[in-house]
Amino acid sequence: MGVSKQQSQAFNMGLDVAPQNASKAFDDDGRVKRTGTMWTASSHIITAVIGSGVLSLAWATAQLGWIAGPIVMILFSIVTYYTSVLLSDCYRSGDPVSGKRNYTYMDAVQANLGGLQVKICGLIQYLNLFGVAIGYTIAASISMTAIKRSNCFHEKGEKSKCDISANPYMILFGVAEIFFSQIPDFDQIWWLSIVAAVMSFTYSTIGLGLGIAKVAVNGKIKGSLTGISVGVVTETDKVWRSFQALGDIAFAYSYSMILIEIQDTVRSPPAESKTMRKATLISVVVTTVFYLLCGCFGYAAFGDLSPGNLLTGFGFYNPFWLVDIANAAIVIHLVGAYQVYCQPLYAFIEKIASETFPDSDFITKDIKIPLPGGYKPYNLNLFRLVWRTVFVIITTVISMLLPFFNDVVGLLGALGFWPLTVYFPVEMYISQKKIPKWTTKWISLQILSAACLIISIAAAAGSIAGVVNDLKTYKPFKTTY
Q1: 437-473 as b/e, with b when 16 or more CB fall inside 10 Å?
Q2: Which part of the chain is the Amino acid transporter transmembrane domain (predicted)?
């Protein structure tokens, strides 16, 4: 049996694979055989989707009301699932079983659309991933300060002044991310994804339970059909906040920019697109049920006063230990989610560097560090160590400068939703399936894309208005909660 060039290189790199077993050890592209399943793909997606966005859904529901709030969440879930199915079909070019693989979202855009669209897509995708890293740093620090404040309230009373600086906690989170960022790639963080997915269910369930308990204590369901009342806020603020709520919900569903990278971890047969359809359906259904429950019970508990962050806005003070567990789970989840989101950005920069400077030992050479307990040596790459560390430091500093959780979440959701979740998957699908212009299917897809563009513009406008409002009373590096 012949051995491909890639397989030969793999043997030379020290992979313990016998040539006669080459076909069993390698996939059709010569890379080491992928081992991902529907369940590991689902855990990656759930880790990415049920993130800090769930915590702002009670606030978002409060802006939209009992009618529009749940309807908008369901519509976003349907759009996300549909466009994710379109996107998963673009993992292979041509034949869905044996066609050329596209390893990243950018590769899929290059294969199907090419030209200027690739550059635009890359800019939007990587800016969005950069923004998500900032958003997660802010969210993690808020949860860490919430644990400290919860204990302070428990000791001194709910009316006590328990203001705590978020900066030390952002730095602590950054240090943890520097350590975890040295995990080389997606295949090696499956365990981190599963831990993060468990944590996301933990704090979502606690938030939901506390919401149900609060409704029971109140003895009534708060809120109104149309959302927060004019009088509590001005008419102008009502409009802007409703738009921002769309961005918050969009952010809660955003994971399309890493779907292809997740799909590239899945084994075949069956065709990767079939596995991803099932994984996406499971993930979107599970997350939507959680989102509806958390958003609706949070709104039912607090009505117009629903906090921007359900577990750190201190609508709940007791039981303080349960609030602490929920916030600890948020922090652990965000440590993993940060890495899941940043892996494509890490890989992109490292690929560019290795292609630009192929002879540089600093960039391409791995230093083998022996590990105790019979584990394979760890491959330390100096460029990876330096660049990923610098990246984490930059996101941490920006988080300390702009610590506006709700507004940042809404803006990220708005900027990423239309181009990455809708426009590019729709256009790639049209190109791959060669759908003729002005046919019913082509028109339907374009209407979907145009409607989502309008929603994104409205959400971005609302979030920018929120940031401008926050900046009026803001002092850099002096944020306390």
Answers
A1: eeeeeeeebeebbeebeebbebbbbbbbbbbeeeeee
A2: 34-468
Closest CA to 44 of 266, 351, 267: 266
51: confidence class by pLDDT, cuts 50, 70, 90: low
Look-up: residue for tokens 């009992």?
A: 66
Residue 30: closest CA among 106, 108, 100:
100
Mean pLDDT confidence for 11-26? 47
**Radius of gyration of the chain from its Cα atoms, rounded to whole angstroms:** 23
Quick: pLDDT tens for 207-216: 888 888 888 8
**Mean pLDDT in the chain?**
80
User: Do residues 116 and 424 touch, judged by C-beta distance below 8 A?
Assistant: no
Residue type, 220: K
Beta carbons of 391 and 181 less than 8 angstroms apart = yes
Q: Are strands 366-369 and 378-381 parallel, antiparallel or unpaired?
A: antiparallel
In the chain, where the domains are located: 43-471
Q: Own/partner pairs for 324-329, CB < 8 Å, 24+ apart? A: 324/147, 324/150, 324/151, 325/202, 325/206, 326/202, 326/203, 326/206, 326/207, 326/210, 327/143, 327/144, 327/146, 327/147, 327/150, 327/203, 328/143, 328/147, 329/199, 329/200, 329/202, 329/203, 329/206
Q: Which amino acid is at 345?
A: L
DSSP 327-381: HHHHHHHHHHHHHHHHHHHHHHHHHHHHHH-TT-HHHHPEEEE--STTPPPEEEE
Tokens of 469: 């409002």
**Residue 309 to residue 303: CA distance in whole angstroms:** 14
Amino acid at 32: V
Strand partners, 32: 26
Q: Work out the end-to-end distance of the chain between its first and last CA atoms, rounded to an integer number of angstroms.
A: 65
- SS3 (DSSP) at 405: helix
Regarding the domain delimited by 43-471, which CATH topology (the fold level of the hierarchy) does it fall under? Amino acid/polyamine transporter I (1.20.1740)
Q: How far apart are CA 290 and CA 276, in angstroms?
A: 21
SS3 state of residue 26? strand
Taking the model in full, what pTM does it have? 0.76
